[in-house]
Amino acid sequence: MDIPGALSGVSTALTIVKQLNDIDRRVDEAGFKLKIAEATGALAEAKLGLVDAQEDIRSKDAEISSLRASFKRRDETVERFGYRYRCDASKEPIGTAFCPICMEDGHFVLTIRLEQSGRPYACPKCKANFGFISAFHDPG
Q1: pTM of the predicted protein model
Q2: How far apart are CA 95 and CA 136, in angstroms?
Q3: What CA–CA distance (Å, rounded) separates 93 from 91?
């Protein structure tokens, strides 16, 4: 159940509670108990909906945090020749490029040099092979 569904359940429960207040005291006890049961059911459904909504919000908050971290990490890189690299204090690239495929998924994985010709760089995570990627001196 989503947030609008939960709010609808709460509205229904509040309406039933209002009806309970309006019941004539002379009405039989069975009608009163029925209204109490309806109110209890509506409130229970609303509670479940709010629990689901809370879980959705937590999930979205976690995703937002992950995206923010990814953007921050992206700001700590520099682009050269169509690839992103770590950079030094003067924003000059260092080391090998990050895998552009993994970066699309928010992962920053450095490519590694293979001992083969043709496509000498590869991503150790997604196993994608790349042609000649510029590698810059890593002073550290």
Answers
A1: 0.48
A2: 5
A3: 6
